[in-house]
Amino acid sequence: MHYLPLPRTVVPAVTMATGVLIIWLGWGSMRDPETLWAPGDLSRYHADIAHCTSCHEPFHGPATTKCILCHSEARLAERAMPATASLHLDIIRQQKTCLACHTEHRGALSRITSSAMRNPHGEFVFLMTGAKSCAACHEFEAAFGARPTVLDNEIVRHVMAKGNGAHRPGYVAHCLQCHTGR
Amino acid sequence: MGWLGLGITLLVFVYPIKKRASQNRRWPRGWFRVHMVAGMMGPLVILLHSGAHLHALVPLLALTAMAVVTVSGIVGQGIHYLALRTLNDRRRQLHDQGLSADEIDLRLHGMAAQEKAFRLWQSIHAPMTLMFLVLTALHVVGAIYFGGF
Fold it and tell me: Do residues B70 and B115 both lie within one domain?
């Protein structure tokens, strides 16, 4: 099969167009990097962050060390709910990754926490068990979205022993089906 | 899935490289088949990789350039196939009418020249590949820069 050679102007024209495109993308990357590079809009919680490197470590991705610059131990202790603060302080002290439970760039109104990380028990569970943090009863995996496992410790064994087997995993979420809540 | 799509897509470049490297030897028919199959499969895998995420401009432009290259390749091959079939049919008709080989060539010369007009696709297909490659490289570097290895 024989193909005719391309017209002489085609390659220079496309090369020039590609060069102009690269310059435009470089200029745009400095002015509005989110439009050019982000896989989605930031959530409403982080919408005021202007620089990608506020959260991303170049060539290493989103970094927990960057998260805790704002979500510091002092700020958590001062502003978060006690159980939330306790869980997050444990995570920071154990140098675990925030990415196991949190994500971003899913749109302004999206959740930034894995669905498995919602507290399905409500605050009632802390009154019931006397625990100060989710980590008192659960082990959290490093993978984003992984379901937390139930620990085998004194608090868990005590809860399981109560209620004639009703407090087995998955059932504590529906406590108000049996309890009045008063 | 993006890496798989890129790997398959890169296979298409063996054909033009072989074609240019062996201009005086025979046409690399086998690699042309690989070119056509990988040129369809690679973009399909990349399309799946992109999913419904069409937010960032750089990968969106890379996807558009890929679509232009792929569609122009499919259209060009279709046109080339139809033109050859028409030419062969006409050659058979003229042969059945008892014309000599020289007379047939003379008559078909006009038709063959018309196919040049269809070569617009080639002016789009090959040069746009440069833009597709540059944008894909930018997308890969950006993904590694922001997402890590």
Answer: yes
- pLDDT mean by block of 10 residues, chain A; 182 residues: 67 88 92 89 88 92 92 88 84 87 87 71 76 79 74 86 74 70 58
pTM for the structure as a whole: 0.73
Q: Does B77 lie in the same domain as B11?
A: no
Question: Chain B contact for A11, CB < 8 A?
Answer: yes
CA A146 to chain centre: 12
Is B64 found in the same domain as B8?
A: no
Residue span of the structural domain in which B38 resides: 1-52
Distance from CA of A118 to the nearest CA of B (A): 25
ipTM value for the complex: 0.71
Task: Please indicate, yes or no, whether residues B95 and B81 belong to a single structural domain of this protein.
Answer: yes
Assess A108–B contact: CB distance below 8 Å, yes or no: no
Nearest residue, CB atoms, A52 vs list B116, B130, B146: B146
Q: Which residues of B83-111 are buried (b: 16+ CB within 10 A; e: fewer)?
A: beeeeeeebeebeeeeeeeeebeeeeeee
